[in-house]
Amino acid sequence: MKALLYVFIVAILLAGCSPCKHLAETQEQHDSTLTKVVTQTYYVKDTVRIEIPAQTAERTTADSVSELENDYATSTARINPDGTLYHDLKTKPQDIPKEVETPVQVKDSIVYKDKYKDRVRTVEVERELTWWQRTQMYGFWVALAVIVVGVIVSQRKKIISWLMKKII
């Protein structure tokens, strides 16, 4: 067990640590936008009023009966003293409701903004890592692997018996 403690202390010393150094960072960013305009047309039923203008019609005839006909009119008929029939037709000025489909246009614009497209990032490093710093970074993983292999080899009997108990 003491050997494991010594191996662990050596691994910590090999890994080492250095003070935190912040690198100077400059960043340029280019945003791109895409605007899409969507136009939709739909029809709504609407009521329109149609104005009928005033009309006048008259007729004189030798017959005893005369007819003038209109859907929106008033008619007056009379017999003149000379025996002729006078017929008068006058329409009433009014509005007639009529259903029509009115087109309605809806314009909608959608803006797509991609803030990561064409992103340029420049990081300035004040100096390169030294040989010892690179060795420490790589050496940590090597030391960790050596410790794990050493513990497994030295404690293989206990590990195997423990595994057998768990399996059985």
Summed up, what is this model?
The protein is α+β, with helices and mostly antiparallel strands and 168 residues long. The chain has three helices and seven strands; from the N terminus they run H-E-E-E-E-E-E-E-H-H.
> In which range does the helix fraction lie?
25-40%
Number of helices: 3
Beta-strand percentage range: 35-45%
Q: Kindly report the spatial arrangement of strands forming the biggest sheet.
A: 3-5-4
The low-pLDDT segments are none
Our measurement of the CA-to-CA distance between the termini, rounded to an integer number of angstroms, reads 27 Å
Overall radius of gyration: 51 Å
Q: Could you spell the SSE succession in H and E letters?
A: HEEEEEEEHH
User: What is the SS-derived class?
Assistant: alpha+beta
Envelope shape:
rod-shaped
Mean pLDDT: 78
Tell me about the largest β-sheet. 3 strands, antiparallel
Extended strand count: 7
